[in-house]
Design goal:
The protein has 372 residues and is mainly alpha-helical. It is built from 18 helices and no strands. The protein has 2 domains: 1-209, MFS general substrate transporter like domains (Growth Hormone, Chain: A), CATH 1.20.1250.20; 214-355, MFS general substrate transporter like domains (Growth Hormone, Chain: A).
């Protein structure tokens, strides 16, 4: 939070508005994505779902969010980023309202697809708004604050959801989350002075812009493969972590606290492993972060609940650290195409958890983690 406050304190009012909207949207949508980990055990009990169906629900949300990022960017170029960001946030809020009113698996699945499509607008549009509002070297600091804000949502919203569940039934809590999304959408649409279709304006003025997709070479392919494996591991671990903790005796509030602990470690990991990557290079840093991730997950399995909770922040550092190393590497390799490379990289890496869950669902009877 201090990084964002320090950034906001040094910038003009129009830039401050843009930064506030972009960071606020990042907090909300990343929180919307990760609070599902708190709700999944409840939906399993409510609708009698197996682990394969739980994996499918998560995959539907992640898959729709990843798959619509590129179309969302195209719509933003045509109609303006703030408009599409507001509409997407509205759709995400409606998705949670529908989830709260769902009477079965089919409606719940449709609600998560709706919410995933709505949340797909945040990453491409939020980062673009910040880069449009800040010029030169200031954009690096602004984007650092923007990226960090997402981890605040990952920490805050799962904990808030767990707290709401102690006060009201899950349907009412989910509806409250949806109403919060609609309120955020109204705020985005009411804000004036945000960058609009600035990219088109630059092209009309004859200034060079970044067009086309990033070049696909051996380096990009290797980074993308690592990112897809890392993303699938991270999402798979987080999906089944609440069930592991539940088997150790954790209740819902404790599960919310546990998720906040691992997301807090992840926020620290983004900063620490970015520094590590700059010092050791992408290969050595990735070996360290992936090795620690594997060791941490294996160590967590036999540990009692109390000791496991203490280990979760350490796992979070490594679990989120690889993405910081990878995302900080490829823009320096393809500087003229950094924006398009980022879009392709984010979309393809984000689709990996969908494929990993499909492997689990194809043979639930033979997979020990997929047995109900």
């Amino acid at each position: 939070m201090s990084l964002i406050a320090a950034t906001l304190g040094r910038i003009a009012a129009p830039e401050r508005r843009t930064m506030a909207i972009a960071c606020g949207a990042h907090v909300l949508h990343d929180g919307f994505t990760d609070l599902l980990y708190v709700l999944l055990p409840l939906w399993q009990a409510e609708f009698g779902l197996g682990y394969a169906e739980i994996g499918l629900l998560r995959a539907l949300y992640v898959g729709s969010m990843a798959g619509f990022q590129v179309p969302a960017g195209a719509l933003a170029e045509r109609f303006g980023g703030p408009l599409i960001l507001g509409l997407g946030t509205t759709l995400a809020g409606i998705g949670y309202l529908v989830a709260g009113a769902s009477a079965g698996f089919a409606v719940l699945a449709a609600a998560l697809v709706l919410g995933g499509v709505g949340s797909s607008v945040q990453h491409p549009i939020g980062a673009h708004l910040v880069s449009e509002a800040f010029s030169g070297s200031r954009s690096r600091t602004a984007l650092a604050g923007y990226n960090f804000s997402g981890d605040l949502g990952k920490m805050a919203l799962p904990a808030m959801t767990a707290w709401l569940l102690t006060l009201m039934p899950w349907r009412a809590a989910t509806a409250t989350i949806g109403v919060g999304g609609l309120a955020a959408a109204v705020t985005i649409r009411a804000m004036r002075g945000l960058p609009g279709r600035a990219a088109k304006t630059r092209e009309a003025d004859g200034k060079p812009g970044i067009t086309g997709w990033a070049p696909v070479g051996r380096g990009f392919s290797l980074l993308l493969t690592i990112a897809m494996i890392d993303s699938a591991t991270r999402m798979g671990f987080l999906t089944f972590l609440p069930f592991l903790l539940k088997s150790k005796g954790a209740d819902l509030p404790m599960i919310g606290i546990a998720l906040s602990l691992i997301f807090a470690g992840g926020a620290a990991g983004k900063l620490a492993c970015g520094w590590l990557g700059a010092r050791l290079g992408v290969v050595r840093a990735t070996f360290i972060t992936e090795g620690l991730t594997a060791a941490g997950i294996l160590a967590l399995l036999p540990l009692p609940l109390t000791v496991g909770l203490a280990v979760l922040p350490v796992i979070g550092v490594a679990l989120n650290g690889t993405s910081s190393v990878l995302y900080g590497t490829f823009p320096s390799w393809w500087r003229p195409h950094a924006a398009s490379a980022c879009s392709a990289f984010s979309t393809l890496a984000g689709s990996a958890p969908v494929r990993s869950r499909r492997c689990c669902m194809d043979s639930p009877a033979t997979s020990p983690i997929c047995r109900p």
